Amino acid sequence: MRSELYERTVKHVAGVRPRRLRRLQALRTLVRETRLSVSDLIYPIFVDQRITKPEAIESMPGISRLSLSDIEHEISEVKDARIPAVIVFGLPDHKDSLGSEAYAEDGIVQQTVRSIKKTAPDVVVATDVCLCQYTDHGHCGVVRAGAIANDETLRLLSRIAVTHAEAGADIVGPSAMMDNQVSTIREALDERGFNDTIIMSYAAKFASSFYGPFREAVESTPAWGDRRTYQMDFPNKKEAMREIAIDIEQGADIVMVKPALSYLDLIREASSRFDAPLAAYNVSGEYAMIQAAGQKGWLDTRSIALEVLTAIKRAGANIIITYFAKDVARWLKEAPQ
Ligand code: PBG
Q1: Most buried residue among 146, 174, 226, 249 by CB atoms closer than 10 A?
Q2: Which secondary structure element, helix H or strand E, spans residue 46, and what is its range?
Q3: What pLDDT, on a 0 to 100 scale, did the predictor assign at position 3?
Q4: Which residues of the chain have pLDDT under 70?
Q5: At 289, which CATH number?
Q6: Whose CA is nearest to atom 10 of ligand 1?
Q7: To test ligand 1's pocket by mutation, which of 109, 130, 131, 202 has the most ligand atoms within 8 angstroms of CB?
């Protein structure tokens, strides 16, 4: 027995057939609402001051720690792939309690930025402004009496940002999750005439287990405790919106949600609430999961990666930081979306 509602609905929609638009690949392409493009992507690179040739990172297949002398070649690949931007992470030759190598004029990131800008001035160079790779305790700030001292850390973060700008960085990316890091860095940059240096703030950065492979790659696992007194608690959405609003207010040019895949709801929310360009970081653990399943033959790496990255864009991200950037360039060249 068919209900009255069924009869009415069928009658009403009889001529509407969404499948018409799916019949051919060309039609599907025509009506596609979200197109992933290489021009959306930022490629992370790891530079290690202690090595002389690339060293593969086991938990991030396809990604290596590079030496300074590998940078020229790496950047030529990035350019050939038409990836517009890179973000540089450094591993110093020594760590100390105040992370002094992070703001050394000849620190590894500063040298790398100079080298990139010399060979490829038109590649956008972003840097990560944080202390954790440089401190012997592995925390993102100065430790006083077993706690992270926010305001003392701000001074060091400003120094890091200024040395990166001096080296030629186009974008500095504060990722320490210290309160007022954006306003302090903006002020320090402007005081020295770096008015054009862009701040991409890791505004809503969560204390996440998805950073595991990255921390292994850059040896930045905290020696004690965890990052939960500064990075955000993952169940919180309103707090994430507040963090983003605060950073925009303080002068962030680009704001970021990190990680991306388990936080698509926040990307959606942020993109509808705020007009600033929105970045999402498809982090190391998200990359590792897909690679591992691909290696086992359980998932197809290429199609899963394209699906995930397109979903991050569909959720509202304008910029995606991803270890898949070079692969995406190759995949889209082989089969444009
Ligand atoms: C530095 C930093 C981290 C990541 C980017 N910048 C690690 C952390 O906060 O522990 C993670 C990136 C990734 O997992 O791909 N603070």
Answers
A1: 174
A2: strand 41-48
A3: 74
A4: 1-2, 8-13
A5: 3.20.20.70
A6: 211
A7: 130
